[in-house]
Amino acid sequence: MSTLARAMSKFRLAVIQLHVTNVKRDNLSKAKSLIKEAAGQGSKLVVLPECFNSPYGTGFFREYAEKIPGESTKMLSEAAKENEVYLIGGSIPEEDGGKLYNTCPVFGPDGTLLMTHRKIHLFDIDVPGKIRFQESETLSPGSAFSVFETPFCKVGVGICYDIRFAELAQLYSKMGCGLLVYPGAFNMTTGPAHWELLQRARALDNQLYVATASPARDETSSYVAWGHSTVVNPWGEVISTTGSEEAVVYADIDLQYMAEVRRQIPVTVQKRDDLYAVNPVTER
Ligand SMILES: NC(=O)CCC(=O)C(=O)O
Q1: Ligand 1 pocket check: which of 130, 187, 221 to mutate, most ligand atoms within 8 Å of Cβ?
Q2: Which of 123, 137, 182, 195 to mutate to test the pocket of ligand 1 (most atoms within 8 A of CB)?
Q3: Mind listing the pLDDT tens digit for each residue in 113-146?
Q4: 133 ligand 1 Cβ < 6 A
Q5: CA of 121, closest atom in ligand 1
Q6: Which atom in ligand 1 lies closest to the alpha carbon of residue 164?
Q7: Per-residue pLDDT averaged across 61-71, rounded?
Q8: What ipTM goes with this model?
Q9: Which is the closest atom of ligand 1 to the Cα of 163?
Q10: Which residue in 147, 180, 215, 281 could disulfide with 49, CB within 3.0 to 4.6 Å?
Q11: Could you say which architecture CATH assigns to the domain 3-270?
Q12: What Pfam families does UniProt report for this protein, alphabetically (predicted)?
């Protein structure tokens, strides 16, 4: 491997666990300053949480929704360019053609919008006495897979509940991703039970890096996020995490290490695709 290739196989990732308020302007300016802070620490890829510009809740999505391009994506584009980072803009409520989506915009270091991911699997759950949440009351699902290239590796994007679907991660892995990123706001019921477990499972199943970005916990909000933004390596180990407060979580991603794990335990090439296969039906 050349020195350049070796250098490109390592990069710093920053996950911003933002304290989200109901004042959009404040959310945007706080996000902007934390992106700058993360870039100042050498991060090349920066991730914001699900619903970083708006409180998370079906009663808020329409009020905070924007078209793309709009106020929030303008800030993200400028921040990506000013700080020369790839920026996964968490998610924002998006309005398009009268429908609302939970959408993650991704920007390149020149400020270009590389792609948007509209949450594919809407968060509709009912755990009696604990939590009932129906995103589908106000949101429509996306129906496209979302992978983008960086000089370091291919990155696959899902939003929160998308992490529960192992086939999506498997598909992204098959498409060549070395890192899966899920901006997500788990809650006080499913967070302690499933959040870390799902990340480690997706990482181990596919022998790749997994990163999640949650809003910081706010006990006064109608939906209390679990926090605990995390990065997991291809061995299934948590390599960086935090608690419930606002924080920036840093992790050094090493694609050579991923290749080493895949050589040692070669499940990615041992898959019996002659017996079973997960194949994309649409791609963009
Ligand atoms: N925002 C979400 O999709 C929440 C997902 C979640 O909490 C879960 O348990 O799954």
Answers
A1: 187
A2: 123
A3: 999 999 999 999 999 999 999 999 999 999 999 9
A4: no
A5: 3
A6: 10
A7: 98
A8: 0.99
A9: 10
A10: 215
A11: 4-Layer Sandwich (3.60)
A12: CN_hydrolase
Whether 228 lines ligand 1, by a CB cut-off of 6 Å, is no
164 lines ligand 1 (CB under 6 A): yes
What is the residue with the minimal CA distance to atom 7 of ligand 1?
186
Per-residue pLDDT reduced to its tens digit, 177-236: 999 999 999 999 999 999 999 999 999 999 999 999 999 999 999 999 999 999 999 999
Q: Taking a C-beta distance cutoff of 8 angstroms, is the pair 202, 166 a contact? A: yes
Domain layout of the chain by residue ranges: 3-270
Average pLDDT score, the chain = 96
Please state which of the ranges 4-18, 66-80, 260-274 shows the lowest mean pLDDT.
Answer: 4-18
